[in-house]
Amino acid sequence: MKKLLLLGGSTQQIPAIEYANKQGYHTVLCDYLPDNPGQHYVEKFYCVSTTDKEAILEVAKNECVDGIVAYASDPAAPTAAYVAEKLGLPTNPYKSVEILAFKDKFREFLRENNFNCPKAKGYSSLANAKQEINQFTFPVMVKPIDSSGSKGVVKVDKIEDFEDACKIAIDNSRSKKIIVEEFIVQDHDFMIAGDCFVIDGNVSFWGLLNSHRSTYVNPFVPIGTSYPLVISDKRLNLIKQETQKLFDLLDIHFGAFNIEIMIDRNDNLHFIEMGPRNGGNMIPDLLLMATGEDMVAATVELAMRRNYHFKSDVFLKKYISTHVLYSHENGAFVEVDYQNGIGKRL
């Protein structure tokens, strides 16, 4: 029986475990949380941090795994690539995955390869950031270099608020490093998001979605996605062209990638993120409903050296969305009160 090592056992990562089990793979899980729910779905569980590359490599060697997947996990993606590269398992280049996983490295790569990129620089100390802030034009964005879900991301309109923003970003960074970049004015209603999938170096599936943000709590935190994508054909072609160019330069072979793209008033495309993993917040679930294509299956099978082909990139004629429950204030979640009969359609 072939063995699959999965990095991360949160609730949103269980679909990958369940799929692997159904296919008859022997599933091994690593997660640093001793109470993660995924451990109850696998054959064997190791309480090991998915960011500890050498510890995960040791587990992979001891278990003689045939493949490794970091499903919907930014922190674990470089680890998966590192271990797979060491053991000769299917993977994209570790260096390329690192570039995509860390915002400072990604911005540097974009700039060096003549992609559109705002003025940006990474900092490992608050003092250095404060010393050089006058080199930037406000407003600026301050971000942890290694967070996901927009945690710790702050827009700063005036210099008086810069230090506090840096402290928030540092607090949300695993490495305690931040990046400062000049603000991009978006020329469309919704952030362009979703997942795409690469097979044999080419994007074989485009799961592009509208990403909705909350103007009440944090305008940079995703609160849901919707399909179909609201964009012109001209801009859609630009997205496909620039994304394939990016993957070619990074020597990407296969896998799911979580997209965040913005286009400015001059029709310049900006890559905000290109996460080397499946999207969270049930994006693969929404895409399955919208297109009939199974991103979970593709992720697992290609990691196990199995062939997988998408049937079509033509979406079904459906209107589908997800919404993340959130509150304007702290408290305990009690229930959802559906109005006007909408509960019957969910």
From TrEMBL:
Pfam families: ATP-grasp_4. Keywords: ATP-binding, Ligase, Nucleotide-binding. This is ATP-grasp protein. It comes from the Bacteria. Residues 107-304 form the ATP-grasp domain. GO terms for molecular function: ATP binding; ligase activity; metal ion binding. PROSITE patterns: ATP_GRASP (PS50975). The keyword Transmembrane helix does not apply. It comes from Chitinivibrio alkaliphilus ACht1. Gene3D superfamilies: 3.40.50.20, ATP-grasp fold, A domain, ATP-grasp fold, B domain. The keyword Calcium does not apply.
